[in-house]
Amino acid sequence: MPEGPSIVILKEEAQIFEGKKVLSAIGNAKIDIESLKGKTVIEFKTWGKQLLICFNGFYIRVHLLLFGSYRINEKRDMPVRLSLKFKNGELNFYNASVQLVMGKPEDNYDWELDTMSDEWNSERAFQSLQKMDKAMICDVLVNQDVFAGSGNIVKNEVLFIIRTHPESLIGALSVKEKKDLIKILHKYCLDFYHWKKAFEFKLHWQIYKQRICPRCKIPVTVKKTGLSNRKSHFCTSCQELKIKQKRARQRQATEA
Length: 256
Known about the structure:
- The protein has 2 domains: 4-107, MutM-like, N-terminal (N-terminal domain of MutM-like DNA repair proteins, Alpha-Beta Barrel); 111-248, Helicase, Ruva Protein, domain 3 (Orthogonal Bundle).
- It is 26% helix and 20% strand.
- The chain has 6 helices and 10 strands; from the N terminus they run H-E-E-E-E-E-E-E-E-H-H-H-H-E-E-H.
- Strand 6 (82-86) and strand 7 form a beta hairpin.
- The longest helix has 23 residues, at 175-197.
- The protein is elongated and about 60 Å long.
């Protein structure tokens, strides 16, 4: 599933069609595709893992899901979900979720939650973490209501950087650890974007889809974790499992 940084790159590539009129629209998306013909694209936006194609009074929301893809000025040999043709080219989506939404994106999206937005608000993320003591960190890092745009690669790499087991509980992290987590995740998303633009993203993977931990030189563990049931790649040696709250440990130490 493409993560936020990849969708920002898609937006940048599609911006050649801003201000252009749709000459034809076809596809098997369950929307009124014919109504798009003759409409002018005002702008492209992103929120998390979603591309928003904005028209006057409505927008098209595109989510590439697990296996979706897109092509600009070329086609794939498969059924197209949505194809928009302009005077200067075409934009094609495959195996994607496509929805037509009336109104403006601002009516439905909060860019302070978007890890790739200039409006990203780290304090909002911290306040969310403060209310999620019993949640596993592997679930929180892919929760789009907290870190919009963060996905499985970001989750795995960030947890390796902060040396934390994916099944650790948020409540077991100190205030400083939570703030460090937020800072590192945001930085990783921005680095992800720059690495992807330079075609070197995979060269920076430390734990995701690796066989050996670069720190401990032991095999990487791969298992599905959390309520999200997504695969986690981690080292059982250098990534600590934190399941007890700090306050409980401090109280036990005092009583001892």
